[in-house]
Structure formats: structure tokens, C-alpha cells
Amino acid sequence: RAKEDGRGTHRFFEREMDLQVQRRREMELDLRRAFSRSEFELHYQPLVEIASDKISGFEALLRWPHPAKGMISPAEFIPIAEEIGLIGPIGEWVLRDACNEAVKWPSEIKVAVNLSPVQFRSRNLVQVVISALANSGLAPKRLELEITESVFLAETEANLAILHQLRELGVSISLDDFGTGYSSLSYLRSFPFDKIKIDRSFVKDLAKRSECGAIVRAISGLGRSLNISTTAEGVETTEQLDWLRAEGCNEVQGFLFSGARPAAEVGQLLVRFGARASKAA
Ligand code: C2E
Ligand code: MG
Ligand code: MG
Ligand code: MG
């Protein structure tokens, strides 16, 4: 009896596993098909400088409008794209598309592009960035590349060399999601980052949990001492904004201003948040 139950449970798990494997395989096929059919889109979320209260740039965020499943989050499909070797081509497309778009914006407005640690393995990342800049005509100083600490987990020396080459092109390098992951301060010593992006998880509970406030305050202070600009992610309330301003954080990003919007709406966002809306003038 007990034996039979055990076998039943076993079969149940096998079926569950089969289903998961199947769902996963479907997702992989879908992903490849979507990429080959150019179904991905980049949406843009404003980065707002606290001092001037104006947009200083936009972060390009990948969107996958799935014909049957609706909008699929990059948090869901990027890990799969990384595993199946599709992040290289996708990442290259993201860079090219973001640069082509940004070159239409006023010249003081920057564009931030996320890089996957897997893109560092391909060894042609620098060439891809050079070519995206050259083909679009975007000035390198208008491109910000966002990386996470995971870039330092393996191949540290090789990846540092790539980061230095990128920076020599004149692009800037931001450390994204700071405070999550391993958060070793030695990363800040080993590379001259231009910007630290304070993870949303700390910003969220700024007022409610004193630890979060203390951590955000410490990171802003660290940025100031090291001459690295700080951006708070996930700012949703004026209360958070006031707090961040008082603590000397430089830039904010979040739903308080706007979520990521399609490229066609960038002009409107620029009008709404003070910057010049057209390239001319
Ligand atoms: P991230 O780079 O940290 O991007 C910020 C995420 O926070 C975005 O999620 C954005 O929509 C979300 N966000 C911004 N403001 C708020 C807010 O006020 N409240 C809340 N709740 N969320 C906010 P998204 O677009 O879902 O992207 C998730 C992650 O996927 C990104 O995190 C990034 O790591 C990755 N990702 C997105 N696009 C790309 C890409 O082109 N390439 C690579 N390699 N990764 C990407
Ligand atoms: Mg980012
Ligand atoms: Mg981030
Ligand atoms: Mg984040």
C-alpha cells in the first residue's frame, strides 16, 4: 500500500517534470521565433535628475508582446535567452536599436542599455558597441551601459579588461541593482564606475523600514565620496523623492514619473518633464 502510494507520487512528479520541460521547450521555440520575426520592442523609461527636475536620459527596457500570452517580462525570458545562446544576438539588436532611437533625441539626453554578463563571454562585445555607435552616429558620451555585479563573478580579469575598453570608447558604465547580489565594495575599487543604481528593493521601504533608509543613505554617501553619481530605482512616491533629495541622491527613476513607454512617446515625456522636445533648437 505504502509502496504503491510512493509510486503514485513518483509518477505525479514525473508528469509535472514532463510538463515543465515541455513548457520550457515551447518558450525556447517561441523566443527564437519572436526574435527572428523582430517581435521584440524597446520601451524607454525616464531617468530624472533631482537637482533640475528634468529628464537626463532614458533606460531602454526590452519588451516581448507575445501574440497569445500578452506582454512577457524580461525577468522571465532573459534568463532563458542567456541559457540558449540567444542573448548575444538579442543584446546586439538592443544596442543598435537603442542607439538608432537615441540619436533622434535632444543631444543632452542619454540612453542607458542593460548588458547581460553572458554578453561579456562572447568576446566581441566591444566591437558590437563600436559598430552600434558608428552606424547610428550617436556620440559615445550619450550611451550608458548598465551591468550588474554578476559580471565580476567569473572571468573577472577578462571582463574588467572589456569594461576598460568600453569606457575608453567614451561610453559610461553604471552598476545596476546595487545592494543586491554579492555587493562587495571591492567592485567599486576595481573599476571607476560612472553611476551606481540603488536597487528598487531598498527604495521601496525607505520610509517604512529604517534599515532600508540607512542603506540608501550609506550608498548615496559612498557615491558622493567616490565621486560616482547615484540613481534610485523604483521611485513611486513624492515622499521617497523628497527623502532621496534630502540625502543627496542625484537621479531617480520610477513610476512616480513614468514607467517604460514605447519609443514614439519619448517626445511627449520630454515635453512633460521639462527638456526640449525636439532635436532642433
Ligand atoms: P533593471 O535594469 O533593474 O530595470 C529596472 C526595472 O524596474 C524594469 O523592469 C522597470 O520596468 C522596473 N521599474 C522601474 N520603475 C519602477 C517602479 O517605480 N516600480 C516598480 N515596481 N518597478 C519599476 P523590467 O522592464 O521588467 O526589466 C526587468 C529586468 O530585465 C531589468 O532590470 C534588466 O535586468 C532586465 N532587462 C530589461 N531589458 C533588458 C535588455 O535589453 N537586456 C538585458 N540584458 N536585460 C534587460
Ligand atoms: Mg537596468
Ligand atoms: Mg536596475
Ligand atoms: Mg533592479
Biggest sheet: strands side by side, in what order? 1-2-4-5-6-7-8-9
Radius of gyration, CA atoms, in whole angstroms:
21 Å
The beta-strand count equals 10
Query: Which consecutive residue ranges, at least 5 long each, have pLDDT under 50?
Result: 277-281
Average pLDDT, to the nearest integer? 91
- How much helical structure, as a percent, in the residues? 40-55%
- Give the ordered list of helices and strands: HEEEHHEHHEHEHEHHEHEEH
Could you tell me which ligands this complex binds, including any ions or cofactors? ligand C2E, magnesium ion
- Which structural class matches the secondary elements? alpha/beta
Major beta-sheet overview: 8 strands, mixed, barrel
Give the count of helical stretches.
11
Distance between the termini: 83 Å
Strand content: 15-25%
Estimate the global geometry from the Cα principal axes: globular
